[in-house]
Amino acid sequence: MIQTDTEKINQINILIVEDNAFFRQSFKEHLHLTGPNVQEAVDGPETLEKVKTFPPHLIFMDIRLPGESGLSLTKKIKARHPEIQIVIVTSYDNPEYREAARQSGASHFFSKDALNFEEITALINAVSPR
Phi then psi for 38, rounded to 5 degrees? Predict the structure, then answer.
């Protein structure tokens, strides 16, 4: 049986790691429109637990989180799960953060101020199971 694109997207697990409740909910609502399974976390311990219990294909990670930076979490997750795609999403769009994100193992970097949901949808389609 051949799966449709919608069926493939419905198999994708996405984790949003963000401490700002308003941004997290808005982003989650938009992602639900594209069809993937979406869960959320607000800090390091919750993120690491969700990676175990809800293995994500894609993580949207804020840089500034309570207790531990998103860059540090990205390094930890990529060391154990190199197959997970991590996208840094931050309000701090500067070259130093972009480079730090790259060095941490992030696959992509988006500024919250310039989020392009067409690019995000394309990214989701790219990680969908074949």
Answer: -125, 130
Where exactly are the structural domains of the chain? 16-127
User: What b/e string do you get for 30-66 counting C-beta neighbours within 10 Å, with b at 16 or more?
Assistant: ebeebbbbbebbbebeebeebbeeeebbbbbbbbebe
Q: pTM of the prediction?
A: 0.88
Classify domain 16-127 by CATH number: 3.40.50.2300
Question: For the segment 16-73, what is each residue's pLDDT rounded down to a tens digit?
Answer: 999 999 999 988 988 877 767 899 999 999 999 999 999 999 999 999 999 999 999 9
Residues 6+ apart with CB under 8 A from 51: 15, 59, 77, 80, 81, 84
